[in-house]
Amino acid sequence: MSNHDYAKELIVRPGNKVRLKDVDPAYHGKHGSHEHALPEIQAHITNIDALQYLMHAEGKHALLIVLQGLDGAGKDGVIRHVLTGMNPQACTVTGFKQPTAEERAHDFLWRLHPHVPAKGSVAIFNRSHYEDVLVVRVHQLVPERECSKRFDLINDFEKLLAVENNTAILKFFLHISPEEQLERFKQRLDDPSRNWKISESDYKEREYWNDYTKAYEDVLNRTSTKHAPWYIIPSNHKWFRNLAISQIISQTLADLKMKPPTTTVDLTDIRRKYHEAVIRENGKKKKVSGLKL
Ligand code: AMP
Ligand code: MG
Fold it and tell me: From 3.40.50.150, 3.40.50.300, 3.40.50.1980, 3.40.50.1110, which CATH number describes the 6-262 domain?
């Protein structure tokens, strides 16, 4: 099994300037095929399962996963395939759509805060507060002057979650090519079970591809921080996307060095009081049932 470190390779280092045209959306690293990557993906998902269990038991850390990308980039696919390793008991998924009138009457972070993870839990955002500096900028829904203030506000908000609530934050930008997006829309058209996913607005948004690219570059360049880094995930190959994301999540959880909490009860006493009594009882029953026979 290869131990290629995709976290190191795909992270946007704070202060670095990223140009998306320099990142190949069809990149698949050292792995040649889905078949080749599958055992590794499965191993990461098994690790995620064990580590999330530990996170829940320890109750000291939280994990926030932010998924961003254009329509068809695979946000739903990541939730369905990679996050199968998560126990639903300590995991929430929140999708962010066009804000309601009530949400619009508040600051843009208001609708986010109730959904951030509690200690011991994982929260996944399918779209996020970043829409407020992406779609909002592309369609000029808010004056540019106000939008530009939001980058610092977002960095401060994420810092609050990291510093105040021990939240590890991973932000994944799922990078696909326009050709791959069109191909995926076509598959939705051709597959009756996926027709429901088609929306005309998805096609209309394609016309703004360059504006979205520019807006995403600003996001990646201004909001990748030590406490909340962005990762650019080449996502034309779904299996590579799943491999990279599962590796990064598993590694991040392992780096937290979590430990199961120590017990507050006297184990020797419990064993003596209850289990030895049960063993004795069982022994007696066996004798009795032996007599009956
Ligand atoms: P989908 O994720 O495909 O179901 O679509 C949700 C839609 O809601 C996308 O077109 C987003 O761009 C849009 N959306 C999400 N958040 C916001 C926001 N804060 N302002 C405007 N549109 C948003
Ligand atoms: Mg959509």
Answer: 3.40.50.300
